[in-house]
Design brief:
By secondary structure, the protein is an alpha/beta fold. The chain is built from six helices and five strands; from the N terminus they run E-H-E-H-E-H-E-H-E-H-H. A five-stranded parallel β-sheet has the order 2-1-3-5-4, sandwiched between helices.
């Protein structure tokens, strides 16, 4: 499984720590930037990450900015992306089960330990088999196809 990760300058320090820790655990991680703490624009990296997940170059994405909100909005502008800004491992689990989200986002103030827990819960939780969840996600997909 390949995990794509992207951040703006505010998320950069946490992104770098996450990459090192995931690689230590033999996860394949693809870094889509940014590559420093020099001011940059989160849409550039959120949209790029969304495109890489959409194109199946990576299985899941991790997005980080100051709050996690801006970069999640940017990711969600890419057709086929369902990015959820989460604050807890429970939210990461629920968004996979209910929404089949393919990118998880959080803010720069998330601790490394919490971020790693969120990521692992997210990538190890399967989409629900319940019809209601498939029906709801399919409505989102149908809207994207027609607009």
């Amino acid at each position: 499984m390949k995990i794509g990760i992207a951040s703006d300058h505010r998320g950069y320090p946490l992104k770098e720590q996450i990459i090192k820790e995931l690689q230590k655990e033999n996860y394949e991680v693809v870094d889509y930037g940014t590559n420093s703490e020099e001011s940059t624009d989160y849409p550039d990296y959120g949209i790029l990450l969304g495109e890489k997940v959409r194109d199946k170059e990576v299985t899941y994405g991790v997005a980080i900015c100051g709050s996690g909100i801006g970069i999640s909005i940017a990711c969600n502008k890419v057709k086929g992306i369902r990015c959820a800004k989460v604050s807890t491992p429970e939210e990461a689990k629920v968004t996979r089960i209910d929404n089949n989200s393919n990118i998880v986002a959080f803010g720069e103030k998330t601790t490394l330990e919490e971020a790693l827990h969120i990521i692992k819960v997210f990538i190890n939780t399967d989409f629900s088999e319940e019809e209601k969840h498939h029906r709801r996600v399919n409505k989102i997909i149908a809207y994207e196809e027609n607009n």
